[in-house]
Amino acid sequence: EADIYQTPRYLVIGTGKKITLECSQTMGHDKMYWYQQDPGMELHLIHYSYGVNSTEKGDLSSESTVSRIRTEHFPLTLESARPSHTSQYLCASSELSSTNTGELFFGEGSRLTVL
Amino acid sequence: KNQVEQSPQSLIILEGKNCTLQCNYTVSPFSNLRWYKQDTGRGPVSLTIMTFSENTKSNGRYTATLDADTKQSSLHITASQLSDSASYICVVSDRGSTLGRLYFGRGTQLTVWP
Question: Which of A55, A94, B13, B76 could join B63 via S-S bond, C-beta 3.0 to 4.6 A?
Answer without folding.
Answer: B76
